Amino acid sequence: MMIETLESRRLLAASVGFAGGVVTVTATSAETINVVENTGAVHVEAGANQYNFAGATAVHINGSSKNDVIFYTGNTIGAVINGNDGNDNISVDDEGTGSSTVNGGKGNDSITIIHGNNTNAIGGDGDDQFYVNTDGSSTSSAIVDAGKGTDSVTVYGGTVNADGGTSSGNNKDTLIDASGGTASITSTGFEVFISY
Ligand SMILES: [Ca+2]
Ligand SMILES: [Ca+2]
Fold it and tell me: Which ligand is nearest to the CA of 127?
């Protein structure tokens, strides 16, 4: 006789907390987390659950060890986002005064900065892909540290400081200027350059 337990069918959901002005969202399994901040009001969507907090001063989002999908949009708070292990897909939009910091962690991560305000993207280990200032705005700015692995950084505009990180053997880091030459890019640690 086969017994199917409830445990195996239970939908895992992120834990969401609010203490001392800090909103903390921690994924418990691979899932999609969407956080929007507007002048301290924070809206969290994690799986089927939604939360609203007022008066927030900080936002921390932690991925699980699996492949997480994380979106963050803010205008006064820069989030601290840790993808942790797994191949994570993280998108950040710093529309105002906040500057987010994204740590991809281990795994082959994809990090997109839609509008950067000195937004930090740190790839860590693994072959990471960065899409920087995809709004193409001249006021977008970002700092990228690709870390170990075969990484690629594509810049769509604004001001970008990019470090390809450690490379060895056939592991080559690629910097792509997709801004049509309008971006201001300072770079180190890249072996392959493409512009269009
Ligand atoms: Ca990761
Ligand atoms: Ca890397």
Answer: 2
Q: How far is the CA of 117 from the centre of ligand 2 (A)?
A: 22
Cβ atoms < 10 Å from Cβ of 188: 11
pLDDT digits (tens, 9 = 90+) for 83-140: 999 999 999 999 999 999 999 999 999 999 999 999 999 999 999 999 999 999 999 9
Classified as helix, coil or strand, 161 is: strand
100 exposure class (CB count in 10 Å sphere: 0-12, 13-18, 19+): buried
For residue 171, the ligand closest to its alpha carbon is: 2
Structure confidence at residue 55 (pLDDT) = 98
Per the confidence metrics, is the pTM higher than 0.85? Answer: yes
Spell out the domain ranges in the chain.
21-195
Cα of 178 vs centre of ligand 1, distance in Å, is: 25
DSSP 9: G
- Distance in Å, CA 105 to ligand 1 centroid: 4
